[in-house]
Amino acid sequence: MDYRIVVHYAELALKGNNRGVFVKKLKQNVKRKIVAMGLGWEVISIHDRMFVKVPQSENGKAQDVANEVARLPGIAWLSLVRWFDEKEYNFLKDRQKHDLTSIHELLEELAKSNYQAGQSFALRVKRSDKNFTKTSQQLAREFASTILEKTAWENVDLKNADQFFYVNISSRGISVHTNKIKATGGLPVSSTGRVLTLLSGGFDSPVAAWLMANRGCNVDFVHFSASHHNTKNIENYKISRIVQKISEVTGRARLFIVPYTHFDMALLEYGLDYDLILFRRFMARVAEKIMSNVYAQALVTGDNLGQVASQTMENINSMNKAIDTPILRPLLTYNKEQIIDVSKSLGLYEVCCEPYKDCCALISKNPRTKSDASALAKMESRYLQNYDELMTDTLAEMTEVIYNFGQFEEINCHNE
Questions:
Q1: In whole angstroms, what is the distance from residue 104 CA to residue 145 CA?
Q2: Phi/psi at 220 (nearest 5 deg)?
Q3: What CATH number is given to the structural domain containing 290?
Q4: Which one of 7, 66, 76, 325 is most buried, counting C-beta atoms within 10 A?
Q5: CA angle at residue 415 from 410 to 416, to 5 degrees?
Q6: What are the pLDDT tens digits along the chain (416 aa)?
Q7: 203 and 170 part of one domain
Q8: Is the dihedral of CA 127, 45, 215, 18 positive or negative?
Q9: The model's pTM
C-alpha cells in the first residue's frame, strides 16, 4: 500500500480544447511547489485529475505536502489516499469473489483513528471498473458493515455526516481516503498573463495580488518606500515578508522597492492639496516603466471604491488617465471586513497588522477627494517640470528582491 495525493481540478474541467494547456500549467506548479519543499516526488496527470506519488520512505511528509499543494490556485479539492495497486493486490484475479480483505482492514483502522463519540459517518464508493460484479451500493453496504461491527461508530448519515470514508475502484487499483481537503479553486498561476501590483503595507493590496494570482496571473510587486533599506536586513522588512508569504502559492515573485523621496522633495515647498493624487499618478508612471521590463500586461492596486479619499471615482479616473496601461482593481466592491477575512484565510493578517507608515499617508494628511486629470496635468507641468528626471532618479535607486515559493532567491541593487 502506498500514499498518493490526488488533485481534482477546479475550473480547468470547463476549458474545452484549451484544457490541456491549463492542466499542464497546474502540473508544472504542483511539481515546482514540491521541489521547493526539497522533494522529488513524481506528478502524473490523467484525464480528469492528477496525482502525486509519495515514496514509501517519505510517507510521514505526505499530509504536510497535501496541505501545501491545496493552497495552489487551480485546484478544487484534493485527498491524501492510501493506494492499493492492482498489479500487487490482484483484486480482479477472481472475478466472482474479489478479495477485498485489505480494504476492509484499512477502513477499520481509519474508522478507529477518526472516531468521535456522538458523530455520524457515511461511506461513498465509486466503481469505475465494471469488472467488479458487485455494484457500488453493495460494496458500500459491506464496507459500512465492517465499520459498524468492528468499531465504536454507531450513527450513519448519508447526506450530512461528520466523517466521510471514500473508496474508489478502478482497473489500475483501489484508493481509500477520509474527508477531502478543500482547495482554493480558480486557475493555475501563469495561465492568464502577468501583472504588477502596487504594494503598500496594509491589508488591501496583498489580497488584491492574491486574487489576481487565483485568476491565473503571475504577480510581481512594486513598493514605494520612504527610506533606503540595508540589503542585509531587507528580508526582515515587512513588505518583503508579505511578498514572501504570497509567493508560497504564486511561485516566483519579484519585489521592486523604489524610493519616493525624489518626488516628495520636488513638491515639498509647494504644499499642494492635490499632492496625494499627483503622487499616485507618479507611482503609476514609474510602475509602467518597470512593467515594460518584466512583460506585465496590467497594473493592479488594492483600491476599493470610496474607502479613503484617494479612492473616489474622480481620483480613480485621474490615476487611470496617467498611463496607457490598464489598471485592475479586484477589490473595488469589497468592504474592509471582507478584505480582512480573506487576509486571515491566506495567513497574511499577522504580518499586515504590524506597524508601518504607508507612503500615501505620509504624502498628504488632508487629500482632496475630487480631481480632474487635465487640471492635474497642468500642475505637473508647472510644479514638476523635471518629471522624466524624477522617474529616472527614482528607478536608478530601485532594489529588486526575488522569492520562489516562499524561499528567498536573490537581491539586485540597481544603484550598486
A1: 10
A2: -110, 170
A3: 3.40.50.620
A4: 7
A5: 70
A6: 799 999 998 887 666 778 889 999 999 999 999 999 999 999 999 878 899 999 999 999 999 999 999 999 999 999 999 999 998 988 877 666 778 999 999 999 999 999 999 999 999 999 988 878 889 999 999 999 999 999 999 999 999 999 999 999 988 899 999 989 999 999 999 999 999 999 998 999 999 999 999 999 999 999 998 876 666 778 889 999 999 999 999 999 999 999 988 998 888 777 778 888 999 999 999 999 999 999 999 999 999 988 777 789 999 999 999 999 999 999 999 999 999 999 999 999 999 999 876 655 555 566 788 899 999 999 999 999 999 999 999 999 999 999 999 999 999 886 55
A7: no
A8: negative
A9: 0.90
Q: Is 356 exposed, middle or buried (0-12, 13-18, 19+ CB in 10 A)?
A: middle
Q: Which of 399, 384, 413 is nearest to 285 (CA)?
A: 384
The residues with which 82 forms a beta bridge, in sequence order, are 3, 176
Q: Is 115 in the same domain as 13? A: yes
* Alpha helices in 191-255, H assignment, sequence order: 204-213, 238-250
Nearest 10 degrees: Cα torsion 75, 203, 308, 330 = -10
Cell of 377: 496635468
Cα separation of 356 and 344, whole Å?
18
Q: Are 225 and 263 in contact (CB under 8 A)?
A: no
Number of neighbours of residue 238 by Cβ within 10 angstroms: 13
Element (H, E) at 85: strand 75-85
Task: Show the domain range for 262.
Answer: 193-413
